[in-house]
């Protein structure tokens, strides 16, 4: 052999082991890159939440994303009127169960139906049978502090950049920014309803 040194590179076992080592190093580099990107995205989202910029895919019922700035929410007037009606019915002493009955008898679209009718690709785990109003839907609206002008985000987080699973966070870790949203429900009304 003229070049005995290169014989080992032609050995298939050696080449296979070399490829495995290269793949291992490439996987480590790729994982580090993914972790770095995930941390940067998480930091950017935290910054936007802290300044009151909305980063969710869909606005909560009663609000819509602004046409001028998708990171700002503005009242969705037809839905906001229904939110006001729900609060006033509760203030008058009506239960969540009876409010749901009133809304269904009045053929008022539930939040799910409303978003679907507006052409939204909204999907929810809360989509009740046939999209009707339920007491749980009414209670979620009655307990949503955002209607008082407080932007609330970051109620849960992903456990890892590798997994889609999310875990709920304690309320003290939520991102809350006061007086950033247009008020749909005065704070005193919200507080009275919360105490009922």
Describe this structure in words.
Strands 1-2 form a two-stranded antiparallel sheet. It has six helices and six strands, in the order H-E-E-H-H-H-H-E-E-E-E-H. The chain has helices at residues 12-50, 77-91, 96-105, 111-117, 135-142, 187-195; strands at residues 63-65, 73-75, 151-153, 156-158, 166-168, 175-177. Helix 3 (96-105) crosses helix 5.
What is this entry, summarized?
The chain is mainly alpha-helical and 196 residues long.
What gap, in angstroms, lies between the N and C termini? Answer: 93 Å
Radius of gyration: 26 Å
Shape: elongated
Helical content band: 40-55%
Weakly predicted, low-confidence segments: none
Number of strands: 6
Average of the residue pLDDT scores: 88
Number of distinct helices: 6
Query: Largest sheet at a glance?
Result: 2 strands, antiparallel
Strands of the biggest beta sheet: in what spatial order? 1-2
Structural class: mainly alpha
* Range of strand content: 5-15%
In N-to-C order, the SSE pattern is: HEEHHHHEEEEH
From the structure above, extract its key features:
two-stranded antiparallel sheet, mainly alpha, 6 strands, 196 residues, 45% helix, elongated, 6 helices
Give the SSE map.
Layout: H1 12-50, E1 63-65, E2 73-75, H2 77-91, H3 96-105, H4 111-117, H5 135-142, E3 151-153, E4 156-158, E5 166-168, E6 175-177, H6 187-195
Antiparallel strand pairs: 1-2, 3-6, 4-5
Helix pairs in contact: 3-5
């Amino acid at each position: 052999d003229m070049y005995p040194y290169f014989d080992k590179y032609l050995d298939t076992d050696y080449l296979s082991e070399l490829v495995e080592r290269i793949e291992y190093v490439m996987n480590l580099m790729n994982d580090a890159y993914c972790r770095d990107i995930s941390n940067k995205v998480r930091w950017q989202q935290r910054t936007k939440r802290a300044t009151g910029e909305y980063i969710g895919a869909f606005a909560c019922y009663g609000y819509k994303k602004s046409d001028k700035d998708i990171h700002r929410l503005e009242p969705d007037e037809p839905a906001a009127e229904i939110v006001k009606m729900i609060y006033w019915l509760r203030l008058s002493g009506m239960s969540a169960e009876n409010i749901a009955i009133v809304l269904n008898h009045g053929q008022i679209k539930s939040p799910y139906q409303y978003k679907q009718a507006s052409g939204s690709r909204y999907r929810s785990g809360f989509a009740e049978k046939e999209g009707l109003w339920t007491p749980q839907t009414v209670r979620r609206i009655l307990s949503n502090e955002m209607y008082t002008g407080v932007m609330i985000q970051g109620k849960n987080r992903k456990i890892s950049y590798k997994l889609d699973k999310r875990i709920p966070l304690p309320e003290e870790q939520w991102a809350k920014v006061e007086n950033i949203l247009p008020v749909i429900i005065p704070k005193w009304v919200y507080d009275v309803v919360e105490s009922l």
